[in-house]
Amino acid sequence: MSQPFRRVDGGRVDRGRTVTFQFDGTAYEAHPGDTLSSALLANGVRIVARGPYTGRPRGVYGIAAEEPNAFVQVDSGPGEPMVRATTLEVYDGLVARSLAGKGELRAEPDDSRYDKTWAHCDVLVVGAGPAGLAAAHAAAVTGARVILADERPSPGGDLLGGRAHLDGRPAMDWVADTHARLAALPEVRVLTRTTVTGFYDGNFLVAVQRRTEHLGLAAPAHVARQRLWHIRAGRVVLATGAHERPILFPDNDRPGIMLAAAAAGYAWRYGVLPGRRAVVAGAHDGALWAAVELVDAGVELAAVLDVRSLPEGQVHRALRDRGVVVSAGHGVVGTDADASGVLSAVWIARTDGEARRIPCDLLATSGGWNPAVHLYSQAGGRPVWSLDHAAFVPGDPVPSVWCVGAAAGTFDLADALAEGGEAGWQAAAATGEEPLPPATDSVSGTGAPAACWLTGPVDERADSVFVDLQRDATLRDVRRAVGAGMVSSEHVKRFTTAGTAADQGRTTGVTTVGILAGLLGLPVGAVGTTTYRPPYTPISFGLLAGRDRGRLLDPERRTPMHERHEAAGAVFEDVGQWKRPWYYPRPGEDLHRAVERECRAARESVAMMDVSTLGKIELRGPDVGEFLDRVYTNRFSTLRVGQCRYGVMCLADGMLFDDGVTARIAPDHYHLTTTTGNAAKVLDWLEEWLQTEWPSLRVSATSVTDQWAAVALVGPGSREVLSRLAPALDVSAAAFPFLTVRDATVAGIPARVFRISFTGELSYEINVPAWYGLALWDAVAAAGVTPYGTETMHVLRAEKGFIVAGQDTDGTVTPHDAGLGWAVSTAKHFIGQRSLTRTDTARADRKRLVGLLPADPLVVLAEGAQLVVDADAPTPVPMLGHVTSSYHSAALGRSFALALVAGGLTHRGETFYAVDSGRAHPVVVTDPVFYDAEGARRDG
What we know:
This is Sarcosine oxidase subunit alpha. This protein is α+β, with helices and mostly antiparallel strands. The protein has 22 helices and 49 strands.
């Protein structure tokens, strides 16, 4: 293998080492330090993509983030779609393929690590070109905390691989010295391979750091592939540089056509000839200097064109010394291609002259530079059109933000250094004498740039003038948009799709605005740019998720008894991040048979359940009773020590939020329980009111969910089992009545025992410190008690008409709707009380809780099934409500359900139809309490 377009020497690549990569199934060689685009050019690969709609071949066009064509699919390693070949660093074993406008997601999961981090600094400098380095150094020497971020592998910006001089020596020597000085300062952090993608309120910026992608297959697995930086900066210096823009003409999309500065950059930064015989066409001095760089690199210049007609200057003399004459007032009017579609010749002409054909394999064009004002715009700045720069430049300053260097339209190296140093000094809020920037060997210009958007006879060939290469949007599309009455650049962008591709119009966005202004007969500034929104470059979903994905997306919580559940063969379900036993199948049992056995144990003898997952909140302070009166719908300040009470919480809109039992442990100490799924939400709710509405209340709230393990002992035999486990505790009905709490020693373990029931049976909830949970479970199980899971719990509670907040409620259910009006006090104020007095919340036709008995006792209704009066009525059929809970009951010997129905129990005895998946089952409306309506079993 060889690299036919690699120069003999030069470039910032490691020529002492060679790596092998594959592109479109062919193996090639490159050197460390190459990007994929430079490596492809070195190997003579000209076609790197195709137009997504036209299928026309496309080649490398730019050298950095402005690239509109060379997007590839990376298949090696974790893989990634839509990667810019101009920023993808080549590594040994890289496998990539060309794309036509869009990539594809891999079916395999990405196992790479992605991290997030947060940082604060006094000064953030974005961009490590000459202006950015000067700004960072000026700020850093004051002792300020400085972060310098740049998307390239090393600092230097456009000086990388260039031949500029500072103070009589190569500019890269100054870059290396400045970088070394910054690295030696303790309060400075230099982030390379880091793109700042978003600027948000309060000087909050987001940056993407690529940490291991350049290492490829050799990247260590324990190091994050990318890191998402969240940076809060006191002040920000934007040294983001500028994007080169092209001049458009018919057939301007052929491989072999690229931006002039990019072509020169490949020659000197990477030691690659982008072509052997070139035509250079421009509208500013920078294009002519790019021609100098190309001819010095060994490229034959067939012609150098300048659309301007200006007096000869230094750059003209430099070209003439090299045997090249600039053709002033000339432009490109068309191109030819060979059989593969690659550039073979350029047609040039004066504005009013005859065209002539020049064979070549490279056309380097440049219509000027567009300052990269994206972050400035995101910060609230508004770019304005500058005739002097023929570009949009930052307008009014944004507080605490400085734009310097090319980002501000300052393209002279000496001026950029001075501007950067001054901005860095001011951003650090330093005092004293400002250090002078290094001297530079300045290059004089010959005149102002021209705002040139189009050359050539474009009227009859508008469909071959591409204004957005990645979207295949053409001049004809822009004209159609104007013909349809569109005058806004935002509307034209959406009509033509120009500027909506992955490069977000960085290359031709301003050119499109210039063309639109010409068609409308308006000044360019009057049309204005489209809105620059974050992110500046795409961010992968993997990076946004960070470590919050896979098993870490939702933390998996396990109770102290989890290993016993596993040993018993429990099938688990996820409830509020907890792994809870769903049921405990014995050999030969399915879900139905296991649940029926567990239910019979709870109803007929004794059963046990792990209820450690219930939310538990300790409330302490002299005002806890008053606080709970305001939070719950019923009163808690009258609760005596040692007693418990069921309570209901409402949101401010009067809708039921959560329910649970609260016990008074001591005069200023309460133990509040919540549903498993709402534990964190309830604590947040309590803290919100304590901290923002009632800070005068002397109350502290602490989550103790993880500090307690709990076992519910349920059934007619539970009192006898507890008496054996806690012989010192008087468990008689008189000494330990319903809704009380006792401290006791259970199985030798200090415990807090609650006499409460979620099944309607005689029940106790035994709470012990979490590290004793396993011992407690073993002790209860040793007494011959049957364990049961959440499915059995639901059957037992639904038989009693007990609701589950979030299952039998949906955010539109009041306590009255749920049949809990008895728990709503009319003698005190509480959160949501006023909303409950609204006409809407008191109307008779609200959906209220009812019971349902299917006509077929073997049919278990689908939860969520809609209820209608007539299953055969023509559509649309009015829906009266829906099924919220549905089970088969061993105690009832049939199926049953709970539902929310408009009008509630006013429909008692009526027949409705539960409709699900095209099936309609007749059901009879009943009371929601199906078992032991008198509550006789609660006390044993």
